[in-house]
Each structure stands twice: as structure tokens, then as C-alpha cells.
Amino acid sequence: MTFKSGFVAILGRPNVGKSTFLNHVMGQKIAIMSDKAQTTRNKIMGIYTTDKEQIVFIDTPGIHKPKTALGDFMVESAYSTLREVDTVLFMVPADEARGKGDDMIIERLKAAKVPVILVVNKIDKVHPDQLLAQIDDFRQQMDFQEIVPISALQGNNVSRLIDILSDNLEEGFQYFPADQITDHPERFLVSEMIREKVLQLTREEIPHSVAVVIDSMKRDEETGKIHIRATIMVERDSQKGIIIGKKGSMLKKIGSLARRDIELMLGDKIFLETWVKVKKNWRDKKLDLADFGYNRKEY
Ligand SMILES: Nc1nc2c(ncn2[C@@H]2O[C@H](COP(=O)(O)OP(=O)(O)OP(=O)(O)O)[C@@H](O)[C@H]2O)c(=O)[nH]1
Ligand SMILES: [Mg+2]
Fold it and tell me: Ligand 1 atom 26: the closest Cα is on which residue?
């Protein structure tokens, strides 16, 4: 039997469910998710391996009109996958009409000459008639290899999409060991899980203004727990106040929710120590961006 493999990028506007899809396929949380736009900021691999194939999914930041250097980094890293993959999953939501953002992406997809599968997500939110109208509209914009409606949240039709990808795979290497699930180190996943809680618990500008840096992560010989020290970066003093909350209540909430997820991921007990620091306008400062993991060298 020959082994098959391939790289598949998941592209689309922010908030359409790309990371939810990746996590569903992997059966665990690799990419953080939230109802805020621009949750994902880096490319993240989800390596799906069976005894006959390896599909390397690349989750990407939602493509939007960037207003900061961080936004530039995010959009560039999303588009950079077009040079790296065998197939693109272009994800659109079933419950929102095609907009300028989608048209912009479609133009880039046409120019890239990579096979594109249209994935219409969130079918649980619409009546079948609306879904058909959505499919019809997108079908007229470009040639898709396939069109697959799914619900990443509930899992409907996800296995059919995997089957289609499998059928299209070519003979190839197993690029990564069977037990490797992503390309990022644990530290990255830990920082992301803390950021996810901030995104889920705050509103407006705050989700966009936060970065999380892991200062240290090592086992405490006395308690046996992994001691993690993390700093939550914000852009203004007022944001620092909100993240800390009344008598530290918000920071405590962020910490305890994050701890649960991190322990689940590491399969180990942790002690999480969080700090909050102001870095004025870090989203437009090249050095800060690099320090916080948004480095151009990474794509
Ligand atoms: N009802 C419904 N909601 C969904 C589905 N898939 C994702 N969502 C929700 O949509 C929101 C965005 O999901 P994400 O997976 O973070 O979206 P994303 O495309 O990765 O977003 P960015 O990282 O910002 O580009 C979350 O609140 C999800 O729970 C779905 O199939 N049905
Ligand atoms: Mg995402």
C-alpha cells in the first residue's frame, strides 16, 4: 500500500469557523476560538495522521483589511500559505451574504492557481433554502473543485470533507511523526490558551490589544507542578485595569479558566502566575511584534 500526504490551508474572513474546524478534525484544541474577529494570529498546523495518509492542515488568521502592523503580519501569513499547500479550503459562513472581503480573497485564490474547495460552514444556523442560495452565489464567482457544506461546531459533514481530501491526496512522505499534532511548541499553545480566556471575557478593543508572553515554564521540584509565569501585554493603562479587574477578580478568572485548559493539554498539574504589563501601541512596533511571536521570519 502506498502512503499519501498533502498540505491543506484553511482560509477565509475572520470568525467564519476555521479554527473550530481544525479542532474538530484533530479532536482537541490546537487553535484557540472565540466569537471575536481576528482570534487567530499565526499560522497553526494541525497534523492529521492515519495509517495510510497524513493531511497537514494549516489554520490561518482571518483575512481582513489590516489597520496595524500586526494586521499586516496576520494577513500576509494567511496568504503565504498559498505558496505552500496542495489544496485550499476557502471557508465562508452560510449565514452571511458574500461581501467585499470574500471577493478580495477570491481574486487572490484565482491568481494562485491552487485547487480550492469551498467550505460553507455554520449550516446549523440557516434554512436549507438559504444554504442553496449561498452555494449558488459563490459557485458563480470562481471554479471550485468541490463545494462542501458543514457545521464545524456540530461536526456535520466534516468526515465527508476529510474523505474528499483523502481521495485527492497524492502519494507522498509522512512529513511528521504520527504522534505530532502541531508545529508550535507547548509554550505557544499555553500562551494562546491564556489569550483565549482574555478574548472570551473581554470586549471591544481589549481582545485586539492583548498579547501573552510566557516568561518561564518549569517543574517545581517541591510541589511537582509545572510552574508557568506569563505576562499579559496590553496597550494602555486603562486596559490593564480592566484585565486585572476589581480586587484582581478578572485576572483570577482568566487564570483559573486557562489553568483548566492548560492542564488538560499538558496532562499535568500546573501553577499559573499571571502578570499584566502595558506596552504602548505594541501592535505597530516591529520589535514588540517580534518579541510577542509575530515575527515575519515565521512565514
Ligand atoms: N453556529 C455555529 N457556530 C460556529 C460554527 N463554527 C464556528 N462557530 C462559531 O464561530 C465563532 C468563530 O469561530 P472561530 O473558529 O474562532 O473562527 P475563525 O475563522 O478561526 O476566526 P479568526 O481566527 O478570527 O479568523 C465562534 O464563536 C464559534 O463557536 C458552526 O458550524 N456553527
Ligand atoms: Mg481562528
Answer: 35
d(CA 193, CA 189): 6
Give the range of the structural domain holding residue 55, as residue numbers without chain letter: 4-168
Element (H, E) at 12: strand 4-12
- Indicate the pTM of the whole model: 0.97
Look up the CATH number of the domain holding residue 255.
3.30.300.20
| Grid cell at residue 270 | 500546573
pLDDT tens-digit profile of 248-260?
999 999 999 999 9
The residues near 211 (Cβ < 8 Å, ≥ 6 apart) are: 195, 232, 233, 279, 282, 292, 293, 294
180 found inside a domain: no
Tell me the average pLDDT across 39-67.
98
Phi, psi of 118 (to 5 degrees): -85, 120
Query: How many A from CA of 153 to the centre of ligand 1?
Result: 8
Is residue 228 within 8 Å of 190, Cβ to Cβ? yes
d(CA 50, CA 186): 23
**Residue nearest (by alpha carbon) to ligand 1 atom 1:** 122
The bound ligand whose nearest atom lies closest to the alpha carbon of 33 is 1
